[in-house]
Amino acid sequence: MSEGALKAQLLAVLFAAGRPVSLRELGPLAPEEALLRAIEALGRELEGGQAGVQLERVAGGWRLVVHPAHLEAVERVLRPSPPRLSRAALEVLAILAYQQPLTRAELEALRGKSVEGVLEGLLERGLVRVVGEKEAVGRPKLYGTTERFLEVFGLESLDDLPPLGEGPVLLLRG
Predict the structure, then answer these.
(1) Whole-angstrom distance, CA of residue 16 vs CA of residue 112
(2) How far apart are CA 34 and CA 123, in angstroms?
(3) What secondary structure does DSSP assign to 80-109, as a single string?
(4) If we measure between CA atoms, which residue out of 167, 48, 164, 156 comes closest to residue 98?
(5) 76/26: higher pLDDT
(6) pLDDT at 32
(7) Cα–Cα distance between 163 and 167 in angstroms, integer?
(8) In which band, very low, low, confident or very high, does the pLDDT at 41 lie, cut at 50, 70 and 90?
(9) DSSP letter, residue 164
């Protein structure tokens, strides 16, 4: 298969998926080296903004996003409202992102307030999940962030979190 045909297939898959797609998931299309070359070429082609979208590497995969040059047009027409997270939810997410895995009690001790309702809301939104149990009396659940967390905040991995103390820790992305 030609690189042009592979790029077209990649574009179609990423468009249809509407979420990050991993290299493993793209495996049925072509060998890994050919996929990586085609993804790189597709990314370069979309960089200029003529297609209105660009390729973004996030949460262990690639997805299509609106090119920054066309955000204003999208906002004028669609008037998107980004998901709202309360200050409490952002605090709990920040604590978990930097110090996971943590129990509910550990989260509450670090935050200095109850996290019960906040944690349930984050679980429902798929931003937090139970990652195990602590080897302690009562075997309390351990919580951590999810792939969805990485996707929402535009991170490839937790290594992409800014160092503590540098500006806003978490910026919500559409």
Answers:
(1) 44
(2) 38
(3) --PPP--HHHHHHHHHHHHH-SB-HHHHHH
(4) 164
(5) 26
(6) 92
(7) 9
(8) very high
(9) T
Question: For helices 87-99 and 116-124, what crossing angle results, to 10°?
Answer: 80
Per-residue model confidence (pLDDT) at position 141: 93
Contact 23, 32 (CB under 8 A): yes
Whole-prediction pTM value? Answer: 0.56
**Residue-level pLDDT at 165:** 67
Please tell me the predicted confidence (pLDDT) of residue 171.
43
Could you give all domains of the chain from N- to C-terminal order, each with its CATH number? 3-78 (1.10.10.10), 87-160 (1.10.10.10)
Question: Vertex 5, ends 3 and 40: CA angle to 5°?
Answer: 45
Number of other CB atoms surrounding residue 54 within 10 Å? 20
